[in-house]
Design brief:
By secondary structure, the chain is an alpha/beta fold. The protein folds into three domains: 3-67, no CATH class; 74-320, Endonuclease Chain A (Endonuclease, Chain A); 331-494, Endonuclease Chain A (Endonuclease, Chain A, 2-Layer Sandwich). It is 48% helix and 20% strand. It comes from Brachybacterium rhamnosum.
Length: 497
């Protein structure tokens, strides 16, 4: 049949041809999904993706191609491998410390695990202070910045210039104007989503000649291949002269995130930040240097990053644990599970977004059933609809296992992220206990050994407990059936990673 005749036949029978073409595409996509989706993927995640594709292949399969692989494009993976090798070489210049004699034997195993996963050693002679007041922590960080003589390194998921952060930026401008080197990194999506404050921040940094780069920029094909847009750098850290550092859960923006909806609801965020002195600051600085190279291609010299700590009067052993899609394994998840299974008496976990995978859920419920006192602090209300309802779907299993769940009272969002195990070890940082933090986000956590620091953590937990109410199994079983259905549907959707 001539081409012209064939085209005429197709146009005359367009509905039939289109129907059969869609049917063929539908079948091909379903069969392709059965081959492609389960490859190297958790069974729960694979089933969720397969369900989405089988229900609506034309939409589900393209979404899988965009969001189904929790890895960087090849060019960035190769760069990350170079970064990881560089990190291991540079971390060799930081000496290992010995744990106290009264430390439990399992803690040494955790130290070895962390060193293998993230390359950073355990270092001693550190001092760690905790700050839980939002604006006080910003003021103290600004005060530390004003003492800078050599350099200031800033890395936060969300950075915006507003009335609350104005003094922080004022401090950056002051030291930059007198010749201190200031470098700033911010997650692209985490900051640009606050458009007015983001633009004000960039104008300010440019006006003072401060070098700055967006992390994981929202340019999908920048590295020659499609990059999943929700791979983010979620770390929060500040380093001044390689001598003083800050890390934790807080972003550089007002506690209501400058959103009208939050202001109308009276929402604000509760955080926990740690101020550090001692050799651990070099580990923070090294992590910043790695992310700086990742985004700017500038290699900061060893002497700029790993320095002799001017103050070694502290008594805490600390170890930094980086994690994210650039690592082969899920470093933060492995650390948490190791600690949960090692606990003998008590686990206290604070996480705003609690959507565990099967292994973490098993670790916590097993701990509770073998007699460990397990407490979980979460918010009474949520700022992210899907995650909030997904995490609620786990409450029944946790409560039935004996886990005590404390709901931080509205209208505050408890955004702090930390864990304490027995009287032995604490973990504080940027990592949530959810699948996103395990697979998709670059995070930083710090493990701190010693009962002295544990006393400070217990004081913070007591404050949060006084601001919370305990959820009981009886109350939870009385929730409306439609709400239970919604929670379970969101749990299924949260597995699609």
């Amino acid at each position: 049949m001539p081409v012209q005749g064939l085209w005429q036949w197709i146009t005359e029978h367009g509905v039939v041809v289109g129907t059969y073409a869609l049917l063929v595409v539908d079948i091909v996509l379903r069969l392709a999904a059965l081959v492609v989706v389960p490859r190297n993927r958790r069974p729960g995640s694979a089933l969720a993706w397969l369900l989405a594709i089988m229900v609506l292949p034309i939409v589900g399969f393209p979404l899988y191609l965009m969001l189904g692989k929790a890895q960087l494009p090849r060019a960035r993976r190769e760069k990350q491998q170079q970064v990881n090798r560089l990190m291991r070489v540079r971390a060799q210049g930081i000496p290992d410390s010995e744990l106290d004699e009264d430390s439990p034997s399992w803690l040494q195993s955790a130290v070895r695990l962390n060193r293998e996963l993230g390359a950073f050693p355990l270092v001693g002679n550190n001092d760690v202070e905790l700050e839980i007041d939002y604006e006080t922590s910003l003021a103290r960080m600004a005060a530390d910045i004003r003492t800078a003589r050599e350099d200031v390194h800033v890395l936060f998921y969300t950075i915006g210039l507003d009335e609350v952060t104005a003094d922080f930026f004022g401090a950056l401008g002051e030291v930059a104007d007198r010749g201190v080197t200031v470098r700033v990194l911010y997650d692209h999506w985490g900051s640009v989503s606050h458009r007015r404050e983001y633009k004000a921040m960039r104008r300010f940094l440019d006006a003072h000649g401060i070098a700055h780069f967006p992390m994981m920029p929202m340019r999908p094909f920048r590295d020659g291949a499609f990059q999943r847009p929700d791979l983010r750098n979620h770390r929060k850290l500040l380093v001044i002269d390689g001598a003083r550092g800050w890390m934790g859960s807080q972003n550089l923006i007002a506690s209501h995130y400058d959103k009208l909806a939050n202001i109308r609801r009276g929402l604000h965020w509760q955080e926990t930040m740690a101020r550090l002195r001692g050799p651990i600051v070099s580990e923070l600085n090294l992590l910043f240097g790695i992310d700086w190279y990742f985004e700017s291609d500038e290699v900061l010299e060893d002497e700029e990053l790993v320095r002799q700590a001017p103050d070694t009067s502290g008594t805490y052993e600390c170890q930094l644990v980086p994690s994210g899609p650039g690592f082969v394994l899920e470093n933060n998840l492995l650390l948490f599970n190791q600690l949960f299974y090692s606990a003998r008496h008590r686990i206290c976990a604070v996480s705003p977004y609690f959507v565990p995978d099967e292994s973490m859920l098993a670790a916590l419920t097993t701990a509770a059933k073998r007699g460990v006192e397990v407490e979980l602090f979460v918010s009474e209300i949520g700022d992210q609809f899907l995650v909030f309802h997904a995490q609620r779907s786990y409450y029944t299993a946790l409560l039935e296992a004996g886990v005590r769940i404390h709901l931080y009272r509205a209208p505050t969002i408890l955004h702090a992220k930390h864990v304490t195990i027995d009287d032995s070890v604490s973990v504080i940082g940027s990592s949530n206990m959810d699948i996103r933090s395990f697979l998709l986000d670059m995070e930083s956590s710090m493990m701190v050994g010693g009962s002295d620091f544990m006393e400070r953590m217990r004081e913070v937990e007591d404050v949060y407990r006084s601001r919370s109410r305990e959820l009981t199994l009886e109350e939870w079983k009385k929730r409306p059936a439609p709400m239970m259905l919604l929670d379970n549907l969101c749990r299924l959707a949260s597995s699609v990673v």
